[in-house]
Design a protein that fits this description.
The protein is α+β, with helices and mostly antiparallel strands.
Length: 341
């Protein structure tokens, strides 16, 4: 096992790793598990991740007693050799040890939004400033004035693996929904704009307590035991009371109930994690808009993202994307390089 004083070679992005190359670097350790060889011997199977992508890795000589130490920080220094297995790149690990990283390192070791976080947050606040009802404005102000929560909101991923699974992803996803609603709501004048925009802003804020990212993307105890849907409804009850106390403007009871319903129902279907089926026009609009953005981003990441297709046999189709229940066609036919005949 190398010691912490041994120099580490310059970081090689996972997306740029050649085959049959020696690797010595620091990466995020993802989903480490103990497997058994055909002979019954334990081995380590995991993913290693950085800001450019991820790659499966194996250490064929491994004791279960080592697991607690290598998972201590969520980040590891790995030395090994890249190889192809079933036409997929993977790393054969020779040495692995847990390592502490700084906040600055996270930008290189975890996927991050390509958009400017400060600019996105400024635009989000600008859209929310267009709300009209005094009690709704006070409620949103109670959230925006919570510096700790907003700091987490700007930094958090929107998920651990599916859509917007990168630092800043929760803010990016929420802003995208507000932008979409701002453009679409004039087509549905009978929808209450304040309820829709506020519901979209609040719908995933429970993820600031559901997810962690200091050790890589994972679920917290709150996420495993309560989840962002229920946590979001609880937060709303608390923030509504704070807003009424500080502003003297109390949100009508039915408005609070409808907003909580939007949070509880935004996953659309019970089997997808909704606590209730959407049962107001605004809740139905929010649930479908949330699903539209999430599924579209999943499709774009799988087909046109920077790491799409890496290590796969050359094909116009992806492997099956289980969350979308299909293989996806990659090419954009109107961006063909050949000129029309």
């Amino acid at each position: 096992m190398p010691d912490n004083d041994t120099p580490i070679r310059p970081h090689v992005n996972i997306r740029e790793m050649p085959t049959n190359a020696f690797v010595d670097g620091v990466y995020n350790l993802v989903n480490p598990q103990i497997g058994l060889t055909r002979g019954g011997d334990p081995y380590l199977k995991c993913l290693m991740r950085d800001a450019s992508g991820e790659m499966p890795a194996r250490k064929w000589r491994f004791s279960e007693k080592e697991m607690a130490e290598i998972t201590r920080t969520g980040f590891v220094r790995i030395a090994g050799t890249t190889e192809l297995y079933n036409e997929q790149p993977q790393l054969k690990i020779e040495r692995i040890e847990a390592i502490d990283v700084s906040d600055e390192d996270l930008a290189h070791l975890l996927p991050m939004t390509r958009r400017h976080i400060g600019d996105m947050f400024t635009r989000l606040k600008s859209l929310l400033e267009s709300l009209e009802h005094p009690a709704i404005k006070a409620l949103v102000g109670a959230y925006l004035g919570d510096e700790q929560m907003m700091g987490l909101f700007r930094r958090a991923p929107a998920a651990t693996a599916l859509h917007h699974a990168w630092l800043g992803g929760l803010l990016e996803h929420t802003l995208q929904l507000l932008e979409l609603a701002d453009r679409m709501l004039p087509l549905y004048p009978d929808l209450n704009r304040d309820l829709v925009l506020t519901g979209l802003f609040l719908h995933d804020l429970g993820k600031t307590q559901e997810l962690s990212w200091e050790r890589g993307f994972a679920y917290t105890a709150d996420g495993n035991l309560i989840g962002h849907v229920v946590r979001g409804a609880i937060l709303l009850q608390v923030k509504a009371a704070i807003a009424a106390r500080d502003s003297g403007c109390r949100l009508p009871v039915e408005a609070l109930r409808v907003l909580q319903h939007i949070v509880l129902s935004h996953h659309g279907q019970l089997e997808f994690g909704a606590a209730k089926l959407p049962a107001t026009p605004e809740a139905i609009f929010v649930a479908h808009l949330d699903n539209l953005d999430a599924r579209t981003q999943m499709a774009l990441t799988a087909t046109r993202g920077p790491d799409s297709g890496r290590g796969e046999p050359q094909s116009d189709f992806t492997e099956k994307v289980w969350a979308l229940e299909t293989r996806l066609y990659r090419p954009d036919p109107l961006k063909a390089t050949s000129a029309p005949g």
